Amino acid sequence: MKNQNEEILKILKEFDELNFKISKEFGNINLLSISIVELSKYIASALLNSGDTINQKTKFPFCNDNYLAKDIKYYSDKEFHNNRINLFKNKMLSIPSFFSNSSFRVHSIIFSNFLKELNKKKLFTKKIYFTKAYLDNLSHQSTLIYKFLEKFKSKQKIKNNYFSENFLEHINSFFSQKKPLLDNSKFLFIGTNSNIENRIMSANYLLNNRKVISFNHANYSTLVYGEPLQEIGEYSFCNYYVDCGNLKFKKKYFKSDYFHPKILSCNFQEKFNFDKKKDGKIFYLTDSFHGALRHGPWRDMSDKDYFKFQKKILSFSKGIKIKQHPKQITQNISKYYKHSTHDIIFGKLDDYLDNNNIFIIDRLSQAFFSVANSKSKIIFLDLGIRKIKKDVLKLLKKRTIYKNIISKKISKLSFLKLLNKEKKFNNDIVKKCVYNKKSIKNIITQLF
Asked: Which CATH architecture has domain 282-433?
């Protein structure tokens, strides 16, 4: 897995080198810089899913073994084609101008608070629709990507002759032959620019000299991870990024300028009412299974390997209850847990946040920081899937009963010792990654 991650990073760096060269001619906002996140999904899933005969359903630009082995053309595949039709039928919401999908509005507490403060100031807001982008010399830039993917296809011995062509069909579907007519608003408020629809809208506004403000959707700063995708995705294509916590963004992996923003940090305001029950329970807060939707580098492991690990942990105690990830792929739940004797818990995590409960967690996530904000005992089993920054890792070890198991080897005896182990912990990881002295009101005053 480590070798696969390194290989994906190497290919992305090669693509970045190409982008660095052509940006001198076409500018920093070009087809390569816009498409690099989609390309990372494409090449990562091609490498990670190659040889996996499970052939689970996927969604372009992710690809499974069946897609890699057969001549499947983009527009001849009903599933891929319908995805495009549905995308451009949907109305995308925006406020002065804010563009997002519905999940962004629901889950981003930071943005919700931002809107409330804007309304207090009676700033004009409005909704807009998704608009395709326009680039000069699109065909020439497409040719560069095509040659790059053809080289990758040859090296990886991919049999699908439409592999390179399909990716360009996908990316070019977001572009128009005409320049978009934008409104006269000065700001675009948007969610993550790892999302291609958001990225296109951000590109539209940046190309027209408007300011783009992007928002963290989680209850912690995702800068806890020192990963390549931060540079080209989450913290890119915007002038400002509204975050929480006190972590700093630092460019590390790539040469190109992906419009890295100024970070505006604020305090994440989320409160829970913790019960004080006498009888504590043990919950395993699992990550989701991803099927063929595998990304990289340093994002996830195969469902098969992850389930084997979960099964091992669950075998150590019948008292462990499984709290499913909210984005869990439902067909995998029945597949993997059909004969499980353990309770599978659904619903909001808030309902289980009890100071007397023990939580088993295997990656830093929104769930981790919600639990860490309580006095509950946390057993953190580090599988090495994500690249946690060194300073954050030190704080993580102070808050949890930490165990490094990159090899996925752990015995029942060592696990039970973790369950029974007691230690005093501090909550500095929450203070560093969640809290900040500044409020949303301070940020709005700074911006407007």
From this structure: 3-Layer(aba) Sandwich (3.40)
pTM given for the model: 0.89
Calculate helix-pair angle for 2-26, 31-49, nearest 10 degrees: 160
Q: Which residues pair with 285 in a beta bridge?
A: 323, 361
The interaxial angle of helices 2-26 and 138-156, nearest 10 deg, is 160
> What is the percent of the chain with per-residue pLDDT over 90, rounded to a whole number?
55
In residues, how long is the chain? 448
Q: Tokens 């001849």 correspond to what residue?
A: 76
* Closest to 152 in 3D by CA, of 256, 287, 12, 4: 12
Predicted pLDDT of residue 438:
92
Determine the residue type at 245.
Answer: G
CB atoms within 10 A of CB 352: 19
Examine the pLDDT at 275 and tell me if it is beyond 80.
Answer: no
Peptide bond into 288 cis (omega under 30): no
Residue 264, number of CB atoms within 10 A of its CB: 19
Give the Cβ contact number of residue 109 at 10 Å.
18
Over residues 122-150, the pLDDT tens digits come to: 877 777 778 899 999 999 999 999 999 99
User: HSE-up of 396 (CA within 13 Å, CB side)?
Assistant: 22
More confident residue, 406 or 96: 406
**With contact defined as beta carbons under 8 Å apart, do 296 and 378 qualify?**
no
Amino acid 123 reads L
Note the pLDDT of residue 294. 86
d(CA 133, CA 172): 10
